[in-house]
Write a structure and sequence with these properties.
The protein has 9 helices and no strands. The chain is mainly α.
């Protein structure tokens, strides 16, 4: 029990044994691979960075045609390829390359990135034809304020601050202000 408590405390403090915190080392790229990587788009680099180290190493072991085709594969298919026996993998790659070649000539190949944006947008409502109607008690949307339309009614903007802010009022002043607000206007 004592070991369990000490291990839990070590984990919480970040002093866990190295075996628990160990991360797989990044793969070492050749100069040719580094120059190819440098030419990638930011989205492609971000996608590649999310792959496990074993997938990254697998990618660099592919031929250039297979590398191009690998980007078009769904994530599940990439995982299946990495887990196949060599004979099955060779058969799968011949099928993938044939499909990729057919799709490439048709111009339908698009890489599959995890970081693609799926933003949804709504079309803006059509512009109002003519003039906007004047706002009234029953209409408060899609209309213009009466004073803005040149009418002689509606809310009047104040040219001054009507009093002290409530935070600076004494309780007596707040009560007087509330009574004045509640009282009907005198003609």
């Amino acid at each position: 029990m004592r070991k369990l408590i000490l291990t839990g405390a070590a984990l919480m403090l970040g002093t866990a044994p190295v075996a628990i915190q160990a991360q797989p080392a990044a793969i070492q790229l050749t100069e040719a691979q580094q120059s190819e990587y440098a030419g990638w788009s930011d989205a492609k680099k971000a996608e590649f960075a999310t792959w496990p180290t074993s997938y990254q190493a697998y990618y660099w072991g592919l031929t250039p045609t297979q590398q191009d085709a690998y980007w078009t594969l769904p994530i599940e298919r990439r995982a299946q390829l990495a887990a196949m026996a060599p004979a099955e993998e060779a058969q799968a790659w011949s099928e993938i390359e044939a499909k990729f070649a057919a799709d490439s000539t048709a111009g339908t190949v698009e890489p599959v990135y995890l970081m693609q944006s799926n933003e949804m947008s709504q079309a803006a409502p059509p512009a109002q034809a003519g003039e906007y109607p004047v706002c009234s008690d029953g209409m408060t949307d899609g209309c213009i304020n009466p004073r803005e339309a040149g009418k002689d009614y509606g809310n009047v903007p104040l040219d001054y601050w009507p009093g002290k802010p409530a935070s600076q009022m004494t309780p007596e002043e707040k009560m007087q202000h509330q009574k004045a607000q509640a009282a009907p206007p005198q003609p």
